[in-house]
């Protein structure tokens, strides 16, 4: 469990004061309970965890080096089997830790988690394998200085870009999918944003949106000259769809949670307007 300042308290202080108090994205690999049966492991890419009567549902598996620490943090909170893992998209810092989740299930003698993703994720994985050397090169250019200081697994230092133990999705979908686990329903919705395979989760019972990289506490990364260009118009529309759904809590994969409708309107509205 986390010994750091509570992420909601830190988020509220920053949003309400308008003072950008760092750090916004804490790479601490610690778990904090945010709501009843809802927790986050803060890492370079977070893992959000929902506890149900049938097991745990996770949004993202974090990255290659952080995966084991993320699983360890979850196990300090719950021994329940991990039922499903939703890949919000196929970037390596969101899928790279999946091998650690599979290893955890194996060590406990439980079924491996079911991995869910948008149907465009499989072609992404194929592209990563085909262009492995190129992806390693451009990630060294973009993140190489960071990797040496923080070991975040994004600097292109491995022998292949997509590690062999990254789990392929067991089930993919097109526009929407209803995920029902242990009497709890989460609607998975596809929209293009930072990637073409992006998914966000809507928990209507808690009015909570699990946003992946649609919201990341930085100016939206809509592309750079060496990377695949992103989709700013559709990205903005997805943020406004979250508002139209009635979101009162926003749980991103990077940065801090945003709670209370007025703050959600401010943050998502500003991001959509910027895009």
What does this structure look like?
Helix content is about 35%, strand content about 25%. It has about 280 residues and is of the alpha/beta class. It has a seven-stranded mixed beta sheet, with helices on one face. Strands 8-9-10-11-12-13 form a six-stranded mixed beta sheet. Helix 7 packs antiparallel against helix 8 (about 260-275). It is globular and about 45 Å long. The model has no long low-confidence stretch (mean pLDDT about 90).
Main sheet record: 7 strands, mixed
Compute the number of strand runs: 13
- Stretches where pLDDT is under 50 for at least 5 consecutive residues are none
Strand content: 15-25%
The CATH topology is given as Metallo-beta-lactamase, Chain A
Q: Estimate percent helicity.
A: 25-40%
The CATH architecture comes to 4-Layer Sandwich
The helix/strand class is: alpha/beta
Domain count, please report it.
Answer: 1
CATH class wording: Alpha Beta
Taking all residues together, what is the mean pLDDT?
Answer: 92
Q: How do the strands line up in the largest sheet?
A: 1-2-3-4-5-6-7
| Radius of gyration, in angstroms, nearest whole number | 17 Å
């Amino acid at each position: 469990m986390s010994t750091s300042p509570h992420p909601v308290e830190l988020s509220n202080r920053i949003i309400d004061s308008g003072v950008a108090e760092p750090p916004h994205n804490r790479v601490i690999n610690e778990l904090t309970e945010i709501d009843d049966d809802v927790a986050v492991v803060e890492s370079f890419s977070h893992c959000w965890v929902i506890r149900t009567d049938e097991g745990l549902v996770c949004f993202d598996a974090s990255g290659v080096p952080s995966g084991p620490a993320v699983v360890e943090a979850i196990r300090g909170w719950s021994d329940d089997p991990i039922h499903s893992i939703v890949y919000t998209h196929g970037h390596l810092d969101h899928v790279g830790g999946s091998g650690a989740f599979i290893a955890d299930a194996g060590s406990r003698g439980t079924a491996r988690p079911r991995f869910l993703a948008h149907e465009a994720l499989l072609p992404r994985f194929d592209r990563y394998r085909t262009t492995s050397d190129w992806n390693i090169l451009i990630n060294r250019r973009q993140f190489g200085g960071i990797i040496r200081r923080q070991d975040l697994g994004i600097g292109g230092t491995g022998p292949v870009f997509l590690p062999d133990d990254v789990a392929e999705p067991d089930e993919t979908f097109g526009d929407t999918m209803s995920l029902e686990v242990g009497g709890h329903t989460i609607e998975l919705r596809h929209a293009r944003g930072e990637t073409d395979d992006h998914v966000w989760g809507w928990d209507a019972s808690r009015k909570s949106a699990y946003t992946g990289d649609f919201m990341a506490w930085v100016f939206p990364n809509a592309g750079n000259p060496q990377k695949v260009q992103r989709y700013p118009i559709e990205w903005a529309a997805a943020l406004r769809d979250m508002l139209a759904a009635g979101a009162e809590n926003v749980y991103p994969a990077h940065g801090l949670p945003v709670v209370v409708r007025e703050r959600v309107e401010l943050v998502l509205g500003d991001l959509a307007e910027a895009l």
